[in-house]
Every structure is written in structure tokens, then in C-alpha cells.
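Hi U.,

Before I forget, here's the chain from the pilot set. I'm dumping it here mostly so it's searchable later in email.
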Amino acid sequence: MRRRRRTIYIGDQRWKIQRDKRLAGKYGECDYGAKTIRLCSSLTGFDSLGTLIHEVLHARLPDLSEEVVADLEETLITLIEAEGFRHADDHED
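Structure:
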């Protein structure tokens, strides 16, 4: 399986976003030195989106505590769901 890789700007810094199956026991990680966010390749839907939001918050605001980042992630996911947005992987029958 080929890993997906994208590049985005977070603030004024260029970051890579990668899907990686080698994140043993983690949903994602933010590597400040390599300017890379890695997401577990098995995540889909809102789990994937929530993890991406979480790691982007770490990248953009590195001084925030894990508790604050987790709270902001939850708030944003709740808002996105409440507004009716859906991820392509989330199919309701």
C-alpha cells in the first residue's frame, strides 16, 4: 500500500502530512524537527479528521497543553458534526 503524502502551510511553515501504518499504538504524531504530521493509515472518517485537527493544533500552537489541544479538537469535531458535514468514509444507510 502506497502512503499518501501532502504538503500544507501551517502558519508560515511548510509541513508534510503523511499516512503511516507504523505508528504503533498512536493515532498521530507531530514531528516539529521534520515539519511532518503523521496519521495512522487505518483511521477513517471523523477519527481521521479529529486526529488531523489535533496534530495541526500542536504544529500551529506548540505551547498549548495536551489537555487544551484535546478540548479544542473535541469542540471542533462537535461543531463540524452539528453543522452536518460528513466525511466521504462515513456512510449512513
